[in-house]
Amino acid sequence: MLLRKLVSFSLLPLSALLVAQTSTEPHGQLPVRRVVLYKNGVGYFEHAGPVTGNQALTIDFTSSQLDDALQSLTALDLGGGRITGVGYNSTTPLEQQLKNIPLGLDDQPSTEELYGALRGARVEVSGPGEAALAGRIVSYETRSQKTTAGDTVERAFLTVVSDAGAVRTFEVAGATSVRILDGGLRRDLDEYLALLASTQSQQVRHLTLQAQGTGTRDLRVSYISEVPVWKSTYRIVFPDSGKSGTAASGPETAILQGWAVVDNTVGSDWNNVQLSLVAGAPQSFIEPLSQPIYTQRPEVPVPEAANIAPVTHEGAIDEPKAAPMPKVSQTVTVNGAMVDKSLTQQAQLRSQIHGSAGVMGGIVSGTGGGYGGGMYHSVQDESASASSAKFDDYFEYTVAQPVTIHKNESALVPVLQTNVQADRVTLYNAASPVPLRALWLTNSSNLTLDRGSFSIFENGEFAGEGLTDTIHAGEKRLLSYAVDQAVHVTTEGHLNSTHLHHLTVHDGIMTERNEEIREVTYVVHNAATDSRNVIVEHPVQNGWKLTSEVKPIETSASLYRFSVATQPGETVRLHVGESYTLGVSYRLTGIGDDQMEVILSGSGERPAVEKALAPVLAARAKVHDLDTQIDVKQAAIDELAADQKRLHDNLEGLKDSAEERELARRYAGEMNKDEDQLLSLRKDLADLVQQRKAAQQALDEAIRTLDLDEDV
User: Fold this and answer.
1) Per-residue DSSP letters for 184-224?
2) Of 529, 524, 518, 528, which Cα lies nearest the Cα of 427?
3) Residue 211 falls inside a structural domain
4) pLDDT in tens, 40-80
5) Inter-helix orientation angle 607-652/593-602, to 10°
6) 3-36: per-residue pLDDT in tens?
7) Is 439 domain-assigned?
8) Sign of CA pseudo-dihedral 243, 244, 246, 252
9) 693 located within any domain
10) Count of other CB atoms within 10 angstroms of residue 494
11) What is the pLDDT of residue 168?
């Protein structure tokens, strides 16, 4: 669309528009001509119509939609005219309006708060069996009291000082009447209640555009607004063929109908509008532009002069000469007052910053045209402009015929009808063990199918319904819609095992590559009277690869899909095998004999592996043998040391008799023999330790020089 003129507009106060309307024609309605609805809950609306001369045109909104309209409104006078202003019926926030009523009540006061606001007011109180009493309200309070039955109840009491000075307290019950005698207070209360009532009806907002020009011209206004999300729903109809169920006869042609559920909740009727539905989500947000916003200003206390006590001052002994007065040239005279010259320079600087605007009483007033002393300016762009944009990966349905949907009504709008290819299959997934009837649908149209619900009709009857994600042109997708009670799927032959696959040794590090095997067999039984093409879904796991001969006909991000053709009454088995390779590394010096035995047994009959490991195994055996000998020698030394300690303890307990002296000589002889044996054992142990050290060095060298890379 070529735009001959782009006219910017300014937002004028509603009072200014009322003044401007005195010279224009009566308000006209600008009808909706185009509507584009998006999936993120916003809609693009375009109003268009002719204007003649100076004319005011109105568009109705709900309060919730006005913010979006103010944020995105674009107004174009395509016939040489101009938009001089846009106004709307503004609403001051309720809490701000309540501040202007002296009662000090919010929008939901309690009875206690209401009487608190009336405290001190002249009222007339009357109740059953009591004469009316005129006076002023002192207080309103609730008290807890016990009933004759022992229950606790809350009762309200109003205390009044009568005109005669008597203090009376009345229980406020259902029959108690309190009449306000103060006329000014009654008016405040009436104004308060009227304000609360008025807020309930301020739901329609009228946006008025002022168009100025000559002759008849075209006016176009567009904006976005919050709308309900449009929904897609589909019908897939198979022609009558005399077949039922999920026959495995190959692709069939079906009729696909697409419908959109559209709701009109904006303030205007859609009469013969061009409707487009976009399955995209452009970024959008809400900014409360239509609500007056008040900022929180700091509260500064009024400065007070400090009161000080009078004091006396000593007189001067020697009076100095008077200091010279400052030169008058340092100041200037403004309105008869002496002012620092620097202030005048600051005023000049402000004048330079604001251009032709002057500083007058702290308010900047412009010299340009427009309403309100130059506070608003209208700028007109005389240059022609045109632009175009793509939807990128969005897709759009444009309804061929004009659509009529009145406000606060909804409609089911047809968006497409085309032929598609579909295979009727049975779908099985182990996570949901009930087989499902499904369509393997190929979108053979050049349209993208939006996500939504669908219903299936076979042989003139309803067959089921389900949900679908977005299907692009040429894409194939499974759509399940009912339970297939004639197909039964079970599993058998579960197998999980681990095998050593590869062995590597380098720089003393042994790396095992183990292969984990996982196998399962799906048993598919068709109890129907017709054939079934069963799609078995098997989960895809990261790092695992298929090893079975049967390959899937389709693979998604998380599933393998295998096709199993079954005849009536037939049982078919599907074997699925997978493998996973896992690498584990060891330092050979830290591997125990048991672990080494497991590695060797897992390698099977592999002479190359045994030959490569032979030097290491021999060196390990030598070290192990020396460790055994060292343990034996150490045990013998420990035994002799314990025997010597026993003999030494016995000697200390002997007396100086002939028999005991003889026993002492025998103990001493045994200790000498033990000492000789200990010397010999310690020498043998030292030799073994040296041999063990040399054997360990030989083992370390054998490990260091070992280099192995073999499949096992």
Assistant:
1) HHHHHHHHHHHHHHHTTSTTEEEEEEEEE-SSEEEEEEEEE
2) 524
3) yes
4) 888 999 998 888 888 888 887 777 777 778 888 888 888 88
5) 160
6) 333 233 233 332 332 233 333 344 567 889 999 9
7) yes
8) positive
9) yes
10) 9
11) 84
Residue/partner pairs of 138-141 with CB below 8 Å, 24 or more apart: 138/167, 140/111, 140/112, 140/115, 140/116, 140/172, 141/112
pLDDT reading at 421 higher than 70:
yes
Tell me: pLDDT of 659 over 50: yes
Q: With contact defined as beta carbons under 8 Å apart, do 281 and 404 qualify? A: no
Structural tokens at position 650: 């016995």
**Does residue 376 belong to any structural domain of this protein?**
no
| CA dist., res. 566 & res. 601, Å (int) | 44
Residues 466 and 509 in one domain: no
pLDDT value of position 533 = 93
Q: What are phi and psi of 405, to 5 degrees?
A: -135, 115
Output the six-digit token pair for 462. 């309803």
Provide the β-strand partners of residue 469. none
Write down the pLDDT at residue 333.
34
Contact 692, 626 (CB under 8 A): yes
Containing structural domain, residue 650: 603-711
Q: Is 29 helix (H, G, I), strand (E, B) or coil?
A: strand
Are 178 and 256 part of one and the same domain?
no
Q: How far is CA 526 from CA 109, 416, 571, 572, in A?
A: 72, 37, 6, 9
Query: What are 191-240's pLDDT values in tens digits?
Result: 777 767 665 555 567 778 888 888 888 888 898 888 889 999 999 999 87
- Who contacts 640 (Cβ-Cβ below 8 Å, separation ≥6)? 674, 677, 678, 681
Distance of alpha carbon 561 from alpha carbon 540, whole angstroms: 10
The total domain count for the chain is 5
In 3-state terms, what secondary structure has residue 421? strand
The burial class, CB within 10 Å (0-12 / 13-18 / 19+), for 508 is middle
Q: What is the pLDDT of residues 533-557, one digit of tens each?
A: 999 999 998 889 998 889 999 998 8
Residues 6+ apart with CB under 8 A from 1: 386
The CA-atom distances, in angstroms, between 376 and each of 18, 69, 196 are: 16, 20, 34
Choose one of 483, 507, 523: the last residue of a domain: 483
Say which residue, 641 or 435, is predicted with more confidence.
435
